[in-house]
Amino acid sequence: MIRSRRFRPLILLLMVLASSALFAQYQRKPPDFGGSYSFPSPEHPEPRSEWVRLLDVGMLVAGLALGTWLILKRRSRGGVMLLSIGALAYFGFYRKGCICPIGAIQNVTLSLTDPSYVVSLSIVVFFFLPLATALLFGRIFCGGVCPIGAIQDLVLLRPRKVPEKLDRALRWLPYLYLGLAVLFAGWGLGFKIGAWEVQAARRFLICEYDPFIGLFRISGAFHMLAIGAGFILAGMFFGRPYCRWLCPYGALLSILSRFSWKNVQITPDKELDCGLCADACPYGAIHNYRADRASCLACARCYEYCPREQVLRGAGDEFVQVKLP
User: Fold this and answer.
1) What is the pLDDT of residue 280?
2) What dihedral angle (degrees, nearest 10) is formed by the CA atoms of 88, 92, 94, 97?
3) Burial tier of 22 (Cβ tally within 10 Å: 0-12, 13-18, 19+)
4) Exposed site from 94, 99, 112, 136, fewest CB < 10 Å?
């Protein structure tokens, strides 16, 4: 029974992909961005209707509120999976990955460094609301609302552990990426060493090298589609490789979630220290049988394997005998 559950997310993901491709045939043709990402001009960063912006914000607020309830109150892995599929369908395939707090890092940075670049209130909300939620409840956005996290979580079939030292080293990459993205978005790059001078204009690195944007749009440069496919393939064996080792917004969420008011607690009343949760977590986010505030992605997967959780739900002590992958 447990083994068959592994394939349910993949089947659901395939259904979302198929329905998105069919639904796209009946949508109005989106703006022609060509084969690669086109940076928005400072004068018109968001050429879309006001009601669509409000809908996007409403979906974000609803997703974060529902995710908080499902993860911290309802403690439902199944509910989080359904929320992730909905976020992937809407923010990923329907909105084509354009409505995203990750890319908003650059818009907010540029608006702070260039007075001529004005962003809408919706961009500000998308950037700050998941951060505020992380400060209150942990990485709820990662757990059930982020389409990039969702598509990686849904394809995870045979998780493999990453050596702890390697994992710790790779977790520094998001901070490096964040620094480069802020630098290029706000100021560009320019320096001179002797007779060697380097000048680079402002660039939105996160959007330019987003490995999933081509998958969401079902179009794009071949090398970016290949990189996106590579992350999906890696995600079948290593939990959320982009989220853990590259996502710059995840770096910000990681910092704030360290000080969160409430966060994931593996057992609802007392810890058993049985180790089943640590074995079940594919993200290396459980240390000393406790969810690490900074690295926990709030996927609710550990709840499924906690015997204390199952006893309180009336499932009985036999759940301790579950064989983990």
Assistant:
1) 87
2) 160
3) exposed
4) 112
Q: Is 286 helix (H, G, I), strand (E, B) or coil?
A: strand
The pTM of the full predicted model, rounded to 2 decimals, is 0.81
pLDDT at 323 over 80: no
Angle of the 121-137 helix axis to the 248-257 helix axis, nearest 10: 40
279-316 pLDDT, tens per residue?
889 999 998 888 999 999 999 998 888 887 766 666 54
Is residue 221 within 8 A of residue 214, CB to CB? The reply is yes
* Cα–Cα dist 99/96, whole Å: 8
**Residue range 96-151, pLDDT digits in tens:** 988 889 999 999 999 999 988 888 899 999 999 999 999 999 999 999 999 999 99
Nearest-5° angle of CA 273, CA 279, CA 283?
Answer: 115
